[in-house]
Amino acid sequence: DLYREVEDPAYLISEEERRASFIDGVEEIERFHRGSPGRMLELGSSVGLFLEEAQKRGWEVTGIEPSIWATEQARNRGLDVFTGTLDEFRPEGAEFDVVALWDVFEHLVDPMDSLAKMKRLLKPNGVLCLTTVNIEGFGARLLRGRWPWFMRMHLHYFTSHSLQEMMRRMDFEVLRLSTYPKLLKLGYILERARGMLGPLAVGSLWFAERLHIANTSINVNLGDILMLIARKKA
User: Fold this and answer.
1) Which bin fits 174, alpha (ψ -120 to 50), beta or left (φ > 0)?
2) Are strands 81-83 and 96-102 parallel, antiparallel or unpaired?
3) How far is CA 208 from CA 10, 154, 184, 218, in A?
């Protein structure tokens, strides 16, 4: 219910950087997808930036997003986005070549049950692509209890081993598993760091704005995010 009410205009502060990351993501998916662009489903599609970039490359795209505000933003972009959750999504005989989740897997109440649902939506040899938090990464080990990815809305935390084991149990073939960088504006990073750094983040943001570097793009990779690409076995 809370997700339905979420509004996050700050998400678009780093729109340029997010689009660049999503373009990389689509290209990575296409390395493993067999054949020409087909049907792609994104779980947690927010305002639709990833779907737009995939659509530009010839994919027929569909999104699932619980936030009413975000789905309205996505539909204003001309995208097909369902307001709700994976459990509520009822496509009529739809099968997808790709299912993608960007920073969503850790929010799911029952990841294994959700994987089973996603598997049913995938065609044989279909590709699953997800990014999620990595609790064994350098950032988590360095910051410990002050790690910014410790959030109430993150219900689960993963390691490379646990993700591989989940894929094995669901009979997915792992094609890639590695850390994944985030390209974001410095100002956005400092804004999000307020909860962890408090006045230090506020002061740093003030100086960044005065020095006209708040819009500088920063590629962040402390091993906090894992990317997994897997194939549904035929």
Assistant:
1) beta
2) unpaired
3) 17, 29, 14, 13
Give me the residue label for tokens 């402390």.
222
Q: What is the pLDDT of residues 70-116, one digit of tens each?
A: 999 999 999 999 999 999 998 877 799 999 999 999 999 999 999 99
Give the three-class secondary structure for 199: helix
DSSP 77-88: TT--EEES-GGG
Distances (CA, A) of 155 to 107, 128, 151: 6, 21, 8
pTM of the model: 0.85
With contact defined as beta carbons under 8 Å apart, do 9 and 45 qualify?
no
162's tokens: 């646990």
Side chain identity at 49, as an amino acid letter? L
Q: Which two tokens stand for residue 82?
A: 């369902």
